[in-house]
Structure formats: C-alpha cells, structure tokens
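In response to the reviewer comment on reproducibility (Comment 2.3), we provide here a single inverse folding case reported in full, input and output, so that an independent group could reproduce the run without further information from us. The structure tokens appear first.
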C-alpha cells in the first residue's frame, strides 16, 4: 500500500490527538455484570464510584504515560466492555515492563 509522504504527518497527528486526553469510557455494562455476579445490593454503585476514582487518577497521570502506550492500551481495553481499571493496569504494566528491560541492560 502506498501512502503519500505528505499524509504521514497528518496520520501521526490524528493518532496522537486521539490519545491526548483520558477517553470517556462507558463502564456501565462492566459494572452491571459485576453487580449481577454479586449478592451485594450496592455493587453497581460501588463499581461506578471505583471506576470514577480510577478515571480521576488517570486524569492526573495521563501525560506521564507515553502516547504509544496510551494508544495501545486503549485499543486493548476497547475489545470488550472497557473499564478505567483495565486501562490503568495496562498502562502500568507497559511502564513496568520498560523499567525491567532497562534494568536488565
């Protein structure tokens, strides 16, 4: 496939801008599934509250993660019912793997 040279900066900019901000994820279906598998009546509400806490944490640390990791993790969590917890875990794992590889050198 031939991609015109002038299109590459535009394509790169689109990819980066998609991952510039914490995405808006609909955690309702994941929390609903968690609530259905629990005997606790307030499981849905506590799940949503927990996801909001993780979202707020991501807002503070989003720029600390490389844009390529943010994009890769977004792609990974959007396969099923995405949660902020899964997104943060993916980002932390990517960061930690890089630290281990640096320390091995």
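Designed residues, in position order:
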């Amino acid at each position: 496939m031939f991609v015109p040279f002038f299109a590459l900066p535009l394509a790169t900019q689109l990819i980066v801008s998609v991952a510039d901000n914490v995405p808006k994820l609909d955690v309702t279906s994941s929390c609903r599934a968690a609530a259905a598998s629990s005997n606790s009546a307030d499981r849905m509400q506590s799940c949503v509250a927990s996801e909001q806490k993780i979202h707020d944490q991501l807002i503070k640390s989003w720029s600390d993660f490389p844009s390529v990791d943010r994009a890769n993790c977004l792609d990974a969590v959007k396969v099923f019912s995405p949660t902020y917890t899964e997104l943060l875990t993916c980002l932390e794992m990517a960061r930690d793997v890089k630290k281990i590889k640096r320390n091995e050198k």
